[in-house]
Amino acid sequence: MRLAVVQTNPLFGQKQRNLAEALTLLRSVEADLYVLPELFASGYNFATREEAASLAEETAKGETARVLKKFVQERKTFVVYGFAETKGKSLYNSAAIVGYDGTEGLYRKIHLFDGEKLFFEPGDLPFQVFGSPWGKIGIMVCFDWYFPEAARTLAVRGAQLIAHPSNLVLPDCPEGIRTRCLENRVFAATANRIGTEDRGERPLTYIGLSQITSTKGEVLYRASTDTASVGVVDVDLDEAEKKSINARNDLLKDRRPDMYA
């Protein structure tokens, strides 16, 4: 798989401008799977729930979905992206996967971070794994990485790659995600954003450093802290099937769920 992480610099509320920026970056390189940041089209730092609702979209009918579905058909590729989802009276911080072969999937962020709890409902869908021509893809969003159970659940369910749309403001993830990959023997593609959003309660500055991480915790690509960019790495997802660390230990088979509760 030719894997790309797309690091954007969205401006709050300027959806068409942010979609245009993302498309320019997507079209600048050839890849089999592109991962875009969390809430990349709307911006992140909402002031009110009403504001979040005004920028949210229905999963399959919103402008973001239409634009990216057209792109994947043009390029015969896959995209994972984050967006604000409206479902009835509920709002979710969601991520979707769309593929040229008709693949469509949805994940709603389970572990909400800080002010997100004022605007979004906690995710009500399980961690899921989606098929692709290159291997099995799981999705988690930003702060989910802080919870070892998230990546482990995806690994146990067969994910070979974790697509990780993010809007990281804490400094820990670029190094911490290496442990998630090492302990599960999976790849990860963390797509973050850059810039600052100062919208009232407190400004948020995003750390960039989008990253592709190997099954051994190696940093295969890491972006800068302040530049919109695309990083591309060729990966063999079959490497994620190798869970043994020596002749007697297998990271998944040696688990003792009966002792963890």
CATH third-tier fold name: Nitrilase/N-carbamoyl-D-aminoacid amidohydrolase
Main beta sheet strand tally, sense and closure? 6 strands, mixed
| Integer count of domains | 1
Query: What is the radius of gyration computed over CA atoms, rounded to a whole number of angstroms?
Result: 17 Å
- Tally of DSSP β-strands: 14
Number of helices: 6
Widest sheet: strand order? 5-4-3-2-1-14
Query: For this structure, what is the CATH homologous superfamily?
Result: Carbon-nitrogen hydrolase
Structural class: alpha/beta
Strand content: 25-35%
Distance between the termini: 37 Å
- Tell me, rounded to a whole number, the average pLDDT: 97
Regions with pLDDT < 50 over 5+ consecutive residues? Answer: none
CATH class: Alpha Beta
CATH architecture designation: 4-Layer Sandwich
Helix-strand topology string: EHEHHEEEHEEHEHEEEEEE
Shape: globular
Give an overview of the whole structure.
This protein is of the alpha/beta class. The chain has one domain (2-259): Carbon-nitrogen hydrolase (Nitrilase/N-carbamoyl-D-aminoacid amidohydrolase). 22% of the residues lie in helices and 27% in strands. The chain contains six helices and 14 strands. The strands form three sheets. A six-stranded mixed β-sheet has the order 5-4-3-2-1-14. It has a six-stranded mixed β-sheet with strand order 6-7-8-9-12-13, with helices on one face. Strand 7 (135-139), helix 5 and strand 8 (161-165) form a beta-alpha-beta unit. Helix 5 (148-156) runs parallel beside helix 6 (173-184).
